[in-house]
C-alpha cells in the first residue's frame, strides 16, 4: 500500500473473528502492515460483545466456527448494528452460505481462505473506500439537514451577517477545514449598482474584508472570477470555490473553502447542492429581512471591498508591466487611446469609463504567464503561443471575481478577437465582438507597434498607420480604424498629453 494510503488507513478499526489462532496471527501482520488498527478474537460470542460495546469500521469473520457459525454471528450483530461493513471468510466456496443469506444479512463480500491474502486485502481496501463514501455522504446529509433547519431563522428578521455565520458553521465540519469565507457583493444578483456587499470568514479569513482581499493571490482571484462567470465549481490547489447563483441564474457571490478533504466527487456534488441552498437562503434573507440591513453598513463594506480590490488588481497590473521594461506604460497608453476613440465616436460617459478601466486592465491576465514566455526574444513555439492566448480569459476571470467589473470582464476577454473570426479566445466575428473590445483591440495593436519589443524594434508612425489600414476589415473594425486614424493627425499633441497624464 502507498504511504498516503497507510496514513489514511490508521483511522479505520478492523475486527477479525476466527477460531483458528494461526489465521488471526497472519491477518494481524497483514492488516497492521497495511496501516489498519487490528483486533483479533477467536470466540464468536466475544466478537458480538465487542461490536456491541466498541466501534469498528469493518468486520472479517470465518463462516465455520464454534459455538456459532459466521452467519449466526452476523444475524446477532444485525439486530443492533445495521451499518457495520462485513466480509465473510470461507474454507471452500462449496461450504459458503447461500447467496440469499448473504444478501439478507447485508454481508458485503466473501472470499476463500488461502495461503495468500491478496484477494482479501483488495476486498478490505474496497470496503474502506465504501465506508469513506458512506461517511462523507452522511456527513453532507447531516449538513444539508442542518441548513434546511436553519432556513426558518431567515424569517426571524435577523441580520444577513448572522445567517452567513450560521452557514459557515455548518460548512466547516463537512470538509474538516478551518479556513473559509462567503463573499456576497451583489445581493440581488442583477448587477445592481447600489453597492451591497457582505463578507464573512472563519479561520485565517476571519479578518475584515479589506484585510482579506490583500491575502488573495492572482490564482485564487482568477478562480473566484471563473466560478462566477461559469457558474460551476472551481477546484484550486488549496481548496474549492462554489458559486452562489440565485433563482434567476445570476451570480451573487461565492463560497471559498480551503482544505484537501473535498476532492471526492460525491462530496463536491453535495457541496454544490449545499451552495444552492445557501444562495436561496441568502436571497430569501435579503428579501425578508431588509429592516435589519443597514444600508450605510452595506455601502461601507462595498466601498472597502472596491478600494482594496482595485488596489489588488492595480498591483497585479503593475506587476505585469514590471515584468517587461519594453511594455511598461503600455496599459496606460491603451487606456488613453481607447478613450480618445470613444470620445470621437461620441460614446456615453459610462462607455468612456468602461474603456478607461478596460484599457488599464486589458493585460492583467498575463500575471500568471511565465517570464520565459513574456520576455522571449525568439519566435514563440506553438505551445508558448497557446499559453499567451490564455491571458484574455484569465484577465476576465480576475475581473469577474467581484461584480464591480461585471461590464469590464467581457471587454478584456474579447480584446484579441478579430473581425474575420481568426482571433482568440472564442474566434468571434464582426458584431459578435463587443464594440468597446473592438476599440481596445485597435488601441492595443497601435501602441504595440509603436513600442520596442524584445523581438523587434518599434515601427515608424507611418508604418503603424499602414498596418492599421491593412488590417481594417479583417483584423480590425474598419469604421473604428478610420476614426482612430483621423484623430491620430494630432499624434504629437496626444503623445505629449499621454506622457503628462500617466
Short précis:
This protein has 502 residues and is an alpha/beta fold. Helices cover 54% and strands 11% of the residues. The strands form two sheets. A five-stranded parallel β-sheet has the order 2-1-3-4-5. Strands 7-6-10-9-8 form a five-stranded antiparallel β-sheet.
Mean pLDDT: 81
**CATH class type of the largest domain:** Mainly Alpha
Span between termini? 61 Å
Our Rg estimate from Cα atoms comes to 31 Å
User: How many β-strands, per DSSP?
Assistant: 10
Task: Please explain how this structure is put together.
The protein is of the alpha/beta class and 502 residues long. It has 3 domains: 127 residues, 3-Layer(aba) Sandwich (Rossmann fold), CATH 3.40.50.2300; 165 residues, GAF domain (Beta-Lactamase, 2-Layer Sandwich); 204 residues, Hypothetical protein af1432 (Orthogonal Bundle), CATH 1.10.3210.10. It has 21 helices and 10 strands. The strands form 2 sheets. The protein has a 5-stranded parallel sheet. Helix 5 links the parallel strand 4 and strand 5. The longest helix is centred in the N-terminal third of the chain and has 37 residues. The radius of gyration is 31 Å and the shape is elongated. The relative contact order is 0.07. The N terminus is likely disordered.
Helix and strand topology:
Elements: H1 3-9, E1 13-17, H2 21-33, E2 37-41, H3 44-53, E3 58-62, H4 70-77, E4 85-90, H5 99-104, E5 109-112, H6 118-154, H7 160-175, E6 179-184, E7 198-202, H8 209-215, H9 218-230, E8 234-235, E9 239-245, E10 251-258, H10 265-288, H11 295-323, H12 330-344, H13 349-361, H14 371-374, H15 382-388, H16 391-400, H17 409-413, H18 435-449, H19 461-471, H20 478-487, H21 491-501
